[in-house]
Amino acid sequence: MILDPPGLVSGTAQRLPHWPYVRAVDEALTARGIPPGTVRADRTYAARGNTMYIVLVWDISRTAGAGGLRFNWEEETGWAYAVLGVRPSLASPAQTLTALHRVFAAPDDVADVADHFVHNWRLPSGEYGAEWDQAAEVRSTIDRFRATVTEPGGVWTGAG
């Protein structure tokens, strides 16, 4: 489980506006008994629009398949996945997780899809349309983040 460190300093992942979503998804995955081995949250920086993203990776030791699994999330496109080879540098092209119909899919839905894939090595046949109940607040924080990212006292650089 991801824990917030005491005292958030400027420029840390925990100050990113989508951190609450990262935590909620990680908690849902951990509750299912399938925590990813790697959880990365960041942004693309100004040259690429300060787009927020998440990367979750289960290596071969955490799946029932012949390789690992990577879930990618971007604030504009939602969830995608790639199957990883024995070496993580060998990956299939990323494909949209079509079962998750929302950019901010409900964390329990993300965990359900991941659980099915990790244990059965295929995507579930169902569809998941619920949006996370804090999505609007995080979208608003992302907008505020972009507006203040380089300003003293902004969401990224200061007390925010």
Describe this structure in words.
By secondary structure, the protein is α+β, with helices and mostly antiparallel strands. The protein contains three helices and five strands. The protein has helices spanning 19-31, 107-120, 135-148, and strands at 38-43, 52-58, 68-74, 78-84, 95-96. A five-stranded antiparallel β-sheet has the order 1-2-3-4-5, with helices on one face. The longest helix is centred in the C-terminal third of the chain and has 14 residues, at 107-120.
Number of strands: 5
Classification by helices and strands: alpha+beta
User: For the terminal residues, how far apart are their CA atoms?
Assistant: 25 Å
Radius of gyration: 16 Å
Unreliable spans: 3-8
Q: Major sheet: order of its strands?
A: 1-2-3-4-5
Nearest-integer average pLDDT? 87
> What is the share of helical residues?
25-40%
Tags for this model:
160 residues; disordered N terminus; 26% helix; alpha+beta; globular; single chain
Structure, briefly:
The chain has 160 residues and is α+β, with helices and mostly antiparallel strands.
Helix and strand arrangement:
Layout: H1 19-31, E1 38-43, E2 52-58, E3 68-74, E4 78-84, E5 95-96, H2 107-120, H3 135-148
Antiparallel strand pairs: 1-2, 2-3, 3-4, 4-5
Helix pairs in contact: 1-2
